[in-house]
What does this fold into?
Amino acid sequence: MSGKPYASASVRNAAPILSALRHEFRAAASVLEIGSGTGQHAVTFATELDHLTWQTSDLQQSHDGIKQWIAEAGPSNVLQPIALDVLTATAMPASFDAVFSANTAHIMSYAAVCRMFEFAATALPEQGVFFLYGPFSRDGVFSTSSNAAFDESLRARNAAMGIRDLDDLDAMARRGGMSLLRIYAMPTNNLAAVWRKRGDDECQ
Ligand SMILES: C[S@@+](CC[C@H](N)C(=O)[O-])C[C@H]1O[C@@H](n2cnc3c(N)ncnc32)[C@H](O)[C@@H]1O
It folds into this structure.
């Protein structure tokens, strides 16, 4: 048994996320993943979506695990992680057709989430999409008492963490020139939200 990091949630949520990604990333060639975590999603999605080049990234401390997953199970279209802390990074490493992030917005501070949206907007070309998966509230309301309890436990652990509201995220996206395209209901009361970068001639 190898010592690779393992997140059981990444196994459980991979199929519904993949199903949405097949549609949303059908026209993309390059994807930046922000906060790749263990690297399991990257390996799974790059294997299944072999038209994509999947760039992993995370804080430096997660890189060894991501590299292990890539070494043991990664297809050739998944790239070694780049160090990307959205709070402190000053520039995007490159431009990408799509940006993906899962279960990051409630872990990052609010300021870091703002920066993540700025980065996504900067990285994307017109019509490029930002796909964000996780637990979110809507109109300030949690969909379930378990999400409310999860939010409370996050904030007790670290006051900077917490479940974000989709309205706030959408405002961040709009500031970066992105429009909400779709929201997918996902298992266990999670959502996936997809924003698309507007063209210059589109209404704001
Ligand atoms: C709960 S994990 C999710 C990992 C993976 N995406 C998944 O769904 O299993 C949150 C991830 O966000 C990353 N993260 C936290 N703060 C970050 C920041 N400021 N910039 C980039 N990544 C960050 C963490 O290192 C961690 O890998």
Remarks:
- The beta strands are 30-33, 53-58, 78-83, 98-102, 129-134, 136-137, 164-165, 178-186, 190-197.
